[in-house]
Structures
1.
Amino acid sequence: MTVSIQHRRSANRTLRIVCPNGHLGFAPIKVGSFDIGLTSEPDLVCADSGSCDIGPGPLGEDVSSSPLSWQTHDLEKMLLGARRLGVPMIVGSAGDTGTNSRVDLFVQIIQQLARKHALSKFRLGWFHSEVPKQLIARRMADGESIDGLDGRDALDADTLAATDRVVAVAGVHPYLALLEAGADVIIGGRSSDCAIFAAPAIRAGFPEALSYYYGKVLECASFCAEPYAGKESVLGEITMEDVKVTALLPSQRCTVASVAGHAMYERSNPYYEHFLGGHIDMSDCLYEQYDDRTCRVTGPRFVPAEDLRVKLEGAGKLGERFVGMVGVRDPYTIANIDAVMDWARQQTAEQFGETGYSLHYTVYGRDGVMGALEPLRDRPGHELCIVVQAVAPIAETAREVCMTGLRQMFYARLPQVKGTAGGVAFAFDEVMQASPAFRWTINHTMRVDDPMALFRIGMAEAGV
Amino acid sequence: MTTRRLFDLAKTIRSKNAGVDRITFDVIFATRAEYDAVRRSNALSREAVCRIFGIAPDRITDHVAFDPAMAIKFTIKRAIPSGSPGDADIFGSQQYGPLLDLEIRLEP
């Protein structure tokens, strides 16, 4: 059997990257496999920290969904490992959203950690990805179409006006610029996951097709290995001919099935990966078992874009939000739960009117998780939990609407109900303030002449 | 003709966001025989997916048999974007439930 790439480089010219985490901060790195990675001669340590999966709230409110202590934990492990080995460290889409404040937060954490551990001086680079709304408005006024993705219409003025914050998704370009400028540690704003890993490989002279694929396969860390285990490190190696990826947790393996399976993870189509500057076509990728725990991949193609279009992500606030919940056990009430909710909606409308707020009922035990997609919604369980959400411009209105929409379920008038002392059960006879409600207003692309046009890089010294 | 549940034939059955406006489903098999059998059965065809989830054909944006992973993959448009009020599955990760009990007709 071939010697594992964990122990020996597979070619004379290689670039090795350890990736400890597919979403830095969201859950802490498992340090055991990361430490193994640090003994495997990595040339860089890289991780992505962003995701749209957390919903539009964090971007709109400009907060992290990850706790500061977990973000600091992961940055500390990566920083100490990378500085000890003297290799660059790259983190992309800082703080879940990649907004400017999240980049600045991560930069500050790195500077504090460098002082805390008295690390020798190093160069700390970053870039910002936020896009001012006025810039987009000007482009629209000039007749430029901000095209919708995934079936959305082109952006209109009202939707832009309803947006609170916009980030642009960077390609490899700001990372290349910062590596060129000698950065030892890079904190990226919003960027394509694959760019974090592709940039150092492209800079080292590896083919673009393999470099982008390299990023694609590494960005979710141990999600490309089996059996399933999150937050474990993987080691990647790129050569002029192929990409190899190996699992570092001793009980995991990167197999043909796990790596090919990961190619289609959380994407509409398993064959294409788009980013600023082009896409890779993985239709002819060949996956082979290289050693017991390593998969080798060849055959991705790079297709440069004719037009440079940068992806924009934007979130807009809908209002303040309160939530409450009720339980139902009476089979007759369960069978007529729509009438109960209609009654409560009607009572709310009588008090607050038909507009100016929104009221949402989620019926767990019937179709709470899947809504209209639920094939078994005509077969509810023997008890239901109904979550009531109210959204309104000010908190006090949201509270009152929620309380009305909740408590009126208790008073719903069903013609043949036997229980006449209350139609629902309260675990809490109260409504609770939740985070404000946001929506994804922008999932679009905008043409740019220069791939750096929307990104601003900075550099400082850190350490002592 | 015998039937078996998709649960017993597939190695992985999952759903997940594909961006903020879509949910994608992956059904992955451990062996070529199981992969081929389910494809032949049409139990996960476009028409079957529409029937299972009660959706119109234009809600399906992609439907692929992905040989390298021995997987059937399809993607549907969300009714509302992920995380908007009323969306109860921000990650899209619990939409695959109805697939587990699908009865797959096996050719002798």
2.
Amino acid sequence: MSKQAGTQEKKIRVLVAKPGLDGHDRGAKIIARALRDAGMEVIYTGLRQTPEMIVEAALQEDVDVIGLSILSGAHMALTPRVIELMKANGLNDVKLILGGIIPDEDIPSLEKMGVSGIFGPGASMENIVEHVRKVAGEHQQ
Amino acid sequence: MSISSSRETSVDTQGNTPLPSVPPTPPIVEAIRASRRDLARLLSRIVENQAGRELAALYPFTGHAHIVGVTGSPGTGKSSLVNALARHYRAQGQTVGIVAVDPTSPFSGGAILGDRIRMRDLAGDSGVFIRSLATRGALGGLAAATSDVVRAMDAAGFEIIFIETVGAGQSEVDIAHTAHTTLVVEAPGLGDDVQAIKAGILEIADILVVNKADNPAVENTVRGLRAMLDLGHRVERIAHHGRLMSVQASEEVQPENLAWQTPIVQTIATSSTPDAENDGIGDLTKQIEVHRIYLHESGTFARRQRASLDGEIADRLRDALLARLLAQISADEVESLIARVADRDLDPASAVSALLEKVDGSFQP
């Protein structure tokens, strides 16, 4: 009965995107599903997105968090481009997380660029959900 | 076709009576026209129910867009069709807003909003703005905030606004209140011909679209739909107190009150050669334009608008009254009544009467 009456808490909105040319989105779909099951609204945009498409979608959808899934090894090229476009479009406060195959030696420089969380194979779903919830909370303030 | 001038001389093609004096443009309207980020953020506040003041300020600047609803069963190609239509309108220089609705999980409250997957052709075009909405518990195929989201896009200057409903089955007919022209999308090979004569979603179609027309079974589908349409009387569809009603079309057939005959248009929304003459998208946009002119010429536009506002105000009143009423009753009282109903000690209607007795006398029937 409270559905119509009470104001709900603000829903977390997450864009899950696959930039670049690799054609495997099973991981991205599993993450999307897990975030959905955690009560979030997940905008899923499909394969082979350019950084421009990703940032444009994030802007129009006013998301709190962008999650990139990159398996192709192009993360050191794609991630800075996404961050550059996010800044150019005023999305400075939107959080960026990364999943996929990311070698350990790249993690420090990615974090320095401003990536808030990096989740490789074997990362637990609970950790990812918890991280998204935490950084989305920071964004919404 | 020209706009009839005899009765409604002051109405332009969009149905707007020119205002005697132009009010100054409020800051929120200037902001959403200038900045896509500001529009996106306003849409979030609308969805979260935090934009009452902004909506009031921008309302006088709405009423210019033509609103096209796109509904139909899951998998008929609604998103692809919106993508193809949007490209067509963009090629003609018109700006396009898209509101795409997908369902919220009734269990977790989360949602996967995936309509953009089929709209990637529209990326990088600043004349297009796409927003995905989750239903958040609303039934009827739309999100509760849909009409306000559309109003914000309208005030921001988008000329054609598409609303794509959730994959709708048979009774998700709310779109007909919100849209000016409702497309019901069918595809070959779904269901038998009894589906077509059932009440519900087919009745709200202003234009029936048979997508995936390159499927050999398309002739059967079109034949079934045409038979269904021929059986129908020429009726006029109006909404009254939030309910759609069909009334017999007027006996004296004057040009202004000619009843609309639902056309059937075949399309191939994912045709590999865009703008090909035979993908049907051009035909469909022509029919949308014919319907838009019909709405204004026949006076149907004004009648439908009144009826849908009637329904919207009734809905808002109901929500506001319910909220006010629930604020006066403790949750424990509600819980204990629900427990009594569950125990078969009390019937649901008597429980409601008991609740009404507890609050302000003005709420009593």
